[in-house]
Design brief:
With about 300 residues, the protein is an alpha+beta fold. The chain has two domains: about 140 residues, GAF domain (Beta-Lactamase, 2-Layer Sandwich); about 150 residues, Reverse transcriptase/Diguanylate cyclase domain (Alpha-Beta Plaits), CATH 3.30.70. The protein contains ten helices and nine strands. The strands form two sheets. Strands 6-7-5-8-9 form a five-stranded mixed β-sheet, with helices on both faces. The protein has a four-stranded antiparallel β-sheet with strand order 2-1-4-3. The chain is elongated and about 70 Å long.
Length: about 300
């Protein structure tokens, strides 16, 4: 009987202690004053990376996290630090109205305390719905700025990217960015002889070939028809010819594409801060046309 009474008393003490911790966390004036701004800040953007960055910055001011990643079904976003095997990992799956959003994977130098886990849970409550909105917006945006056939960036994304780079050049004109417009020589014959369905397959294959020949920092867009645009950041004008030759050689050695007897011509230029997006494309197009007139299968800059 005495043992039961002692156990009951200990249980009550533990329960009271837990309630005290939760009460301290949920009713603290400091936490209340900081939680509201978090919700407000998270709702200021629909950009996924920005929403996660806002959360990470807020969280870092309150918890001793050494590394943080957001992992969803289709991407991994590193938010804080670098992962190390010796650190303690703590993962939380996030849901909004039963919709799985992804995992927040934290690393601590020491296992997180109960108090810190509760703090994270409260911060996650502020994060989930802004995060869901940002994820939905990101999916819609991908559809809006991607070419439906090749999956490459479309003209809308190209214009946006060129404007962004032009703004960067106004701040720092020491950078050198190359814009290259490419056109497939002989593509019309593919459509005429083999049909548009086969022509579409050729366009998709060529788009993949371009991506394979470029750096991760370079970008590829389908401009329209059989024209593609490359943006080569931090690239000198003399390097543009090397990029073109690499693409042409890859095209000539591609087993699938070589059977259609197609080539590639290109025109390129280095961006200037005073260029508009249309100025850049117009000038690249003039140089592409000159390459075609000069005999095709070549690059003019």
């Amino acid at each position: 009987m005495l043992n039961r009474a002692v156990a009951k008393a200990e249980s009550k003490t533990t329960e009271n202690k837990t309630q005290a911790i939760i009460s301290q966390l949920t009713s603290s004036t400091e936490l209340k004053s900081k939680s509201a701004p978090l919700s407000e800040r998270l709702q200021t953007s629909l950009d996924l990376n920005q929403v996660l960055s806002i959360y990470a910055e807020y969280m870092l001011q309150r918890l001793p996290v050494s590394a943080l990643q957001f992992i969803s079904d289709d991407q991994i976003i590193n938010l804080v630090g670098n992962y190390q095997d010796q650190n303690s990992e703590y993962s939380v799956m996030l849901y909004a109205d039963n919709e799985y959003l992804g995992q927040m994977v934290y690393q601590f130098k020491c296992p997180p305390s109960y108090v810190n886990k509760v703090r994270l849970e409260q911060m996650h409550k502020h994060l989930t719905f802004p995060l869901r909105n940002a994820i939905h917006f990101s999916r819609l945006r991908k559809v809006a700025v991607r070419d439906h056939l090749t999956g490459l960036g479309n003209r809308a994304l190209l214009d946006e990217t060129l404007e962004h780079l032009s703004a960067r050049l106004k701040r720092d004109n020491s950078q050198s960015h190359i814009v290259m417009l490419l056109d497939m020589d002989g593509f019309k014959a593919v459509n005429d002889r083999h049909g548009h369905q086969q022509g579409d397959e050729v366009l998709k294959q060529f788009g993949q070939l371009l991506q394979q020949q470029l750096r991760d920092t370079d970008r590829v867009f389908r401009y329209g028809g059989d024209e593609f645009v490359l943006i080569l950041e931090n690239t000198q004008p003399e390097q543009a010819e090397e990029v073109f030759l690499r693409i042409r050689n890859a095209l000539n050695n591609d087993i699938k594409l070589a059977t259609f007897n197609i080539g590639v011509s290109a025109g390129s230029l280095a961006m200037e801060s005073f260029h508009s997006a249309q100025d850049i494309i117009d000038e690249a197009d003039r140089r592409l046309y000159a390459a075609k007139v000069a005999g095709k299968d070549q690059h003019l800059s």
